[in-house]
């Protein structure tokens, strides 16, 4: 997700929100599908004891074997295919020797480039048996994304999406992260507009058919504040509360939106084992 005040990528990023035609939808379908298939492929590998570096290696090989490129590999000094964000990590967790443990919940985020188009998606994974409070947070996060996406159609405004997400999450006594947001997506990885996961109805840009963007709410069990670790990437909750996220890349259609990153195997929403 982009930093809210993100001004890099300025060369390619344009303030004017791009509107795409049928061939562009086809490009995003291919990229989105491969990104979703990569996350599907990882499901049986997310088990107690696996290192996050091993999951990253599996994803990198999968993407390269399919003739695509991992968008994050050379992205502003980042040198991995995945972001893996367990427990109180909000986003941009760096793969490494750390192993996942029974009871962890983790977001895995991948972006692939196919014929220049970016497919960007993330999901939650449960490691072994997961506690009820973690499962509840994951369920709320998925419901928040669904409520945001249910708003999408021409004429609706960005604030309507943010408000649908925020009002639901807060009604469940959780909080929405403010410091990271969704983004326009397409030939540019992080394009305008910023897609805030909070806001006021009837405000912000008006959606038009052919716009492409991500919706990727981060939801915390505690307060919304985050802090960045010294590695310059990893964002964690300030109060160490659990955080969850899920992300789709979508295109606005005449009547709603098309999910480019739907899981072909039906695994977008994880079957988390209960404790
Ligand atoms: N995939 C993330 C997003 O949803 C971006 C990760 S950038 C990285 O926008 F460099 F941290 F990998
Ligand atoms: Co994104
Ligand atoms: Co992403």
End-to-end distance: 31 Å
- Provide the list of bound ligands, each named once: 2-amino-4-trifluoromethylsulfanyl-butyric acid, cobalt (II) ion
Q: In percent terms, what proportion of residues is strand?
A: 25-35%
Unreliable stretches, pLDDT < 50, 5 or more residues? 4-8
The strand count comes to 18
Largest sheet: 4 strands, antiparallel
Shape designation: globular
> Secondary-structure element sequence?
EHHEEEEEEHHEEEEEEEEEEE
What would the average pLDDT be, to the nearest integer? 95
Q: Percent helix among the residues?
A: 10-25%
Taking all Cα atoms into account, the compactness measure Rg is 17 Å
**Helix-and-strand structural type:** alpha+beta
Q: What's the total helix number?
A: 4
Characterize the structure shown.
With 275 residues, the protein is α+β, with helices and mostly antiparallel strands. It contains 4 helices and 18 strands. The strands form 6 sheets. Strands 2, 3, 5 and 6 form a 4-stranded antiparallel β-sheet that branches. It has a 3-stranded antiparallel β-sheet with strand order 1-9-10. A 3-stranded antiparallel β-sheet has the order 4-14-13, with no helix packed on it. A hairpin with a 2-residue loop joins strand 5 (105-114) and strand 6. The model is unreliable at 4-8 (pLDDT under 50). Bound molecules: 2-amino-4-trifluoromethylsulfanyl-butyric acid and cobalt (II) ion (CO) (2 copies). The site of one cobalt (II) ion has 5 residues, from strand 5 and strand 6.
């Amino acid at each position: 997700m982009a930093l809210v005040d993100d001004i890099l990528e300025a060369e390619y990023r344009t303030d004017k929100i791009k509107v795409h035609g049928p061939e562009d939808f086809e490009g995003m379908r291919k990229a989105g599908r491969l990104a979703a298939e990569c996350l599907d492929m990882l499901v049986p590998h997310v088990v107690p004891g696996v290192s996050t570096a091993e999951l990253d290696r599996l994803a990198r090989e999968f993407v390269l074997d399919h003739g695509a490129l991992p968008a994050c590999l050379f992205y502003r000094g980042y040198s991995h295919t995945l972001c893996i964000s367990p427990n109180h990590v909000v986003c941009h967790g760096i793969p490494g020797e750390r192993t996942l443990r029974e009871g962890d919940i983790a977001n895995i985020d991948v972006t692939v480039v196919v014929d220049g188009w970016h497919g960007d998606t993330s999901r939650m994974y449960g490691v072994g048996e997961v506690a009820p409070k973690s499962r509840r947070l994951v369920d709320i996060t998925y419901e928040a994304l669904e409520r945001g996406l249910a708003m999408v159609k021409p004429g609706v405004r960005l604030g309507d999406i943010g408000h649908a997400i925020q009002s639901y999450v807060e009604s469940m006594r959780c909080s929405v992260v403010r410091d990271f947001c969704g983004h326009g997506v397409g030939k540019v990885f992080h394009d305008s507009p910023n897609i805030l996961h909070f806001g006021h109805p009837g405000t912000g840009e008006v959606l038009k058919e052919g716009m492409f963007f991500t919706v990727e709410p981060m939801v915390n069990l505690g307060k919304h504040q985050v802090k960045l670790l010294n590695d310059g990437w990893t964002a964690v909750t300030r109060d160490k509360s659990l955080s969850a996220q899920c992300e789709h890349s979508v295109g606005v259609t005449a009547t709603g939106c098309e999910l480019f990153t739907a899981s072909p195997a039906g695994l977008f929403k994880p079957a988390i084992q209960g404790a």
